[in-house]
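Fold this sequence, please.
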Amino acid sequence: MPHRFDETKPDTEIGDFMALHSLALAIADHSARSEIELYSMQILEADGRRVFDTQQPREESVDQESLSIAAKAVRYIEHRGNALPYRLRRSGSLVWFEDRDRAASLAG
């Protein structure tokens, strides 16, 4: 009598899950910064840096749910850390972005 493990098939479920996970991360990485820039009030500082107030809507049509998405995007970026090509800097509800290449050249 054959054993049920004798007919072993490659476990494509794990591969499918990993592919889906990788795709989801790529989409989230790409859109998280955009969510902040889209929904949060932008402040242009004297040095040209764009700063975003994540507690203030960019315009009147932005609702609280959209600001909530921006706040979640901030938390997501903070958790992803070095995996992203930019750094998130934060002071209270104010956030701004620095490209990693630029931050490294300023430090060196």
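The mean pLDDT is 85. The helical segments are 12-39, 64-80, 100-107.
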